[in-house]
Design a protein that fits this description.
By secondary structure, this protein is of the alpha/beta class. The protein has a single domain, classed as Aldolase class I (TIM Barrel), CATH 3.20.20. Helix content is 47%, strand content 15%. The strands form 2 sheets. The protein has an 8-stranded parallel beta barrel, surrounded by 8 helices. Strands 4-5 form a two-stranded antiparallel sheet. α8 runs parallel beside α9, α9 crosses α10 and α10 runs antiparallel to α11. The longest helix has 21 residues. It is globular. Bound molecules: 1,3-dihydroxyacetonephosphate. 1,3-dihydroxyacetonephosphate (13P) binds next to α11.
């Protein structure tokens, strides 16, 4: 395996001042977000929305890569240009979500394992031919009384590592995404302990499967208290807990860490990212940036509301979120 092109791509994705746009919602997830706003759950509406996102003027100023979904990587604008081409012209690297979603883990009620390893090799080859240069696979871990179990953590870490190895063999940079969900009433300390355990297992499995750390990126959740926890931490406490966890688990050879937003409000996600930069600038071995979905898109989606007349305003809202996060990862000043 030639890891140099992989390393070049991985480094380009976390180039200083830029982050990633996660726009890889599956059809089900995209429909659910549309339904919540009373928008039609049709392929036409999804296509119009994805076209709005990628044609945002100036998007490439702060976005290094965009994660697409199977439907989207094959999509063309109303004018007949492929979305992949639009992204490339804007200097944005196209990527693709390749997992097939989280499903119930047999024998462990309430826990999930991500599926999609069967047949992954030819799918990766096809995506690379369609223009993808990196991929994403999301594992989901839920915190509960005695969850996640060792079995749940091991199964998900193993799948992430198998996926990552297959990606590198196909010439794609794997983004390894173990998400510890925000759902629950757990404390910040419990989330820190679980996230640390998960990341240790993920990197052990990556090593076992021979994944080149220089040619991958990590996409973790921030260390947060559960959404229903009565004692919510300060921004500085979240920043400190998250960075401490990463420093203990993520080898310095990994070029970058790009956070998911995981249901935080757009402002909150940006504030937490900014605080990490403010408090640890110059002391971290990897780039620290964003790979947000909802925290970049939600305001734009709400403003668009399915109306062609709102496209420019929605694109402006997307750009504002991108710029806020660019400030967070460069100057590190809060939004
Ligand atoms: P959120 O930022 O909305 O969590 O989405 C990121 C992502 O890629 C989820 O898999």
């Amino acid at each position: 395996m030639n890891i140099n092109p992989l390393t070049t791509t991985a480094q380009a994705l976390v180039v200083p001042g830029k982050g990633l746009l996660a726009m890889d919602e599956s059809t089900g997830t995209c429909n659910a977000r549309f339904a919540a706003l009373g928008l039609p759950e049709t392929i036409e509406a999804r296509s119009a929305y994805r076209e709005l996102l990628v044609t945002t003027p100036g998007l490439g100023e702060g976005i290094s890569g965009a994660i697409l979904f199977d439907e989207t990587i094959r999509q063309h604008t109303a004018a007949g240009v492929s979305l992949v081409e639009i992204l490339q012209q804007a200097g944005i690297i196209p990527g693709i979500k390749v997992d097939l979603g989280a499903h119930e883990l047999a024998g462990f009620p309430g826990e999930q394992v991500t599926e999609g390893l069967d047949g992954l090799r030819p799918r990766l080859t096809e995506y690379a031919a369609l223009g993808a240069r990196f991929a994403k696979w999301r594992a989901v871990l839920t915190i509960g009384h005695d969850r996640p179990s060792r079995a749940g953590i091991a199964a998900n870490a193993h799948a992430l590592a198998r996926y990552a190895a297959l990606c590198q063999a196909a010439g794609l940079v794997p983004i390894v995404e173990p998400e510890v969900l925000l759902t629950g009433s757990h404390s910040l300390a419990r989330c820190a302990a679980v996230t640390e355990e998960v990341l240790h297992e993920v990197f052990a499995q990556l090593r076992m499967q021979g994944v080149a750390l220089e040619g991958m990126l990590l996409k973790p959740s921030m260390v947060l208290a559960g959404a229903d926890c009565p004692k919510q931490p300060t921004t500085a406490q979240v920043a400190d807990a998250t960075v401490a966890c990463l420093l203990r688990t993520v080898p310095a050879a990994v070029p970058g860490v790009a956070f998911l937003s995981g249901g935080q409000s757009p402002e909150e996600a940006t504030r937490h990212l900014a605080a990490m930069h403010e408090r640890f600038a110059g002391r971290l071995p990897w780039a620290l940036t964003f790979s947000f979905g909802r925290a970049l898109q939600q305001p734009a989606l709400e403003i668009w509301a399915g109306q062609a007349a709102n496209v420019a305003a929605a694109q402006q809202a997307l750009l504002e979120r991108v710029r806020g996060n660019m400030v967070a990862i460069t100057a590190g000043s809060a939004v």
